[in-house]
Amino acid sequence: MSVLTDVLENLGARVLGSIHRLGFACRFLLLTLRNSGICVRRFSLVTREIYFTGVLSLIIILVSGLFVGMVLGLQGYDTLERYGSSAALGVLVALSLVRELGPVVAGLLFASRAGSAITAEIGLMKATEQLAAMEMMAVDPIGRVIAPRFWAGVISMPLLAAMFSAMGVFGGYLVGVRLIGVDEGSFWSQMQAAVDVREDILNGVIKSLVFGIAVSWIAVFEGYDAPPTAEGVSGATTRTVVTSSLAILALDFMLTAFMFRGV
């Protein structure tokens, strides 16, 4: 009986601790939004972080998008050829990327590359007492360090997802048209006729924007909340990647169910 009691006590403590931490994270997000005025007055702080989170992530985003599109072209042609619909390969590639794979895969790559880097940077600043030094000099670390990185991630994520989808379509074109021999006119014309700006492209942009908010929020919070030790920063970086990946997949399901339930 005592063993069962201990298990229930530990489970309850973990649940209460998770709820407390979630509440603290929500308060931290509100504080970040409230102190974001400096990002408007000194937008150069945000542009510098956009370069760090967005521009430096371009290589992995573009290369991954190209190969994902090429794989979609190969797999999609094999499937469509069985039903005599190989001319619709462009539609398959474009809709798969714009609706689903573009925002999700780009979000996962963004969390792995930029999110972990943001957490490690903020965690290291906390461990070396740079954030405490800012407070001693009457500089708000939330507005000066956290908010620019948060907004840079929110701005960068939709742009990276769009570039991922564009490179994926180009990869599908290379494989489908140039390698396999699908008619180029059918590839582009059917894609243009089938892809709707509001139902497909706009919903994909909304998805990527939501993923950007979630990943950036998790990254800055984990960095700010990390214990000021090497092990603490390492654990926070790991939690950022794991939590962000799970959040992206869960949000993707909810957004897809909401957006495309009538399609």
In short:
With 263 residues, this protein is mainly alpha-helical. The protein contains ten helices and no strands.
What is the strand tally? 0
DSSP strand (E) fraction? under 5%
Q: Structural class, judged by helices and strands?
A: mainly alpha
Helix count equals 10
Low-confidence parts: none
Helical content band: over 70%
**Rg, Cα atoms, Å:** 22 Å
For the residues shown, what is the average pLDDT? 87
Order of helices and strands: HHHHHHHHHH
Q: In this structure, how is the largest beta sheet organized? A: none
- Give the terminus-to-terminus CA distance: 53 Å
Number of domains: 1
- Tell me, briefly, the overall form: globular
Features:
263 residues; mainly alpha; 0% strand
Describe the structure.
- It is a single chain.
- The protein has 263 residues and is mainly alpha-helical.
- It has one domain (35-259).
- Helices cover 87% and strands 0% of the residues.
- It contains ten helices and no strands.
- The protein has helices at 2-34, 37-41, 44-53, 58-82, 89-127, 130-136, 141-180, 184-194, 197-225, 230-259.
- Helix 3 (44-53) crosses helix 7 (141-180) and helix 9 (197-225) runs antiparallel to helix 10.
- The longest helix has 40 residues, at 141-180.
